[in-house]
Amino acid sequence: MEQSKGQQSILFQEPPYVIDxxxxxxxxxxxxxxxxxxxxxxxxxxxxxxxxxxAESCLQKEAVEILLGKSGVSKVxxxxxxxxxxxxxxxxxxxxxxxxxxxxxxxxxxxxxMGEAMALGAMTVNAGYAKQVIxxxxxxxxxxxxxxxxxxxxxxxxxxxxxxxxxxxxxxxIGKTKSNVRxxxxxxxxxxxxGVKDSMNMGACMAPAASSxxxxxxxxxxxxxxxxxxxxxxxxxxxxxxxxxxxxxxKGYDISGKYTDCGIEIxxxxxQDTHAGGSGCGCSAVTLCSYILDNIKKxxxxxxxxxxxxxxxxxxSFNEGKSVPGIAHAVMLEHCN
Length: 337
Fold this sequence. Notes:
Helices cover 34% and strands 22% of the residues. By secondary structure, it is α/β, with parallel strands linked by helices. The chain has a seven-stranded mixed sheet with strand order 1-2-10-17-14-11-12. Strands 4-3-9-7-5-6 form a six-stranded mixed sheet, with helices on both faces.
């Protein structure tokens, strides 16, 4: 059976299952609308560590430990891990996961990393290279601010278009063991650059990439927005949401009635002062492992297009005056009885 669909997509012959998911978040995330759905909420942003980077590594470690405990799977039965974060050289991932002694593919897709990790994990299981793998991604507000913006002590004022990096890690176990959620296909995104240079407006930078991959998903599978119960992007926030809806309307598709964004769902806009919403690798990952998977398992949603979004910049590229390209990857999730 031909599994390649159209230009950028795959339809799995033997769809792998999302066996279970785990989420670990910080205090601010725990006080948001999804707070009761996370597996662990820490009141200590340092997670008992000495640095912000060590704290993010602890997020990953705890998420994997919880996932293995929930699923009843031993680490020796996990063939590979696909994981990433926002820090240089993926140090949150390398220091956080090395103790598990599981073969690792370190990934960087900016905030789209959870989609990339799930797509590669599903492809690996579907192809028969592994019975089960773990896909995960993390971010930490303070480690991201330190690397990409200003030290917290500086107290810089954030514009209203800015988003708040989620402190959290989400991890899923993907395998052949049947569950209520399966991955039926994926659409790999391309790098899309509309020339936006405002690094404090991630929604505007990433929305074109989200529009591109969603449109391509429709084209490759010969479907439209009516095929899905929900289309959920990773961290476009309120600014990017409006842009994405407008861009797809220009192509003849109106997703507004069945669309939301993880960065919108995770924080309360009125009480939590996160401006445009949530962002970061952990934003889509923890929202998936709580809110999204729960609604699919309960069959509130039969089909979901999960589209983590990423802004491909670094401090070097920004300081050299480069624009901020975006990328997004689409993962097709379906309820399974």
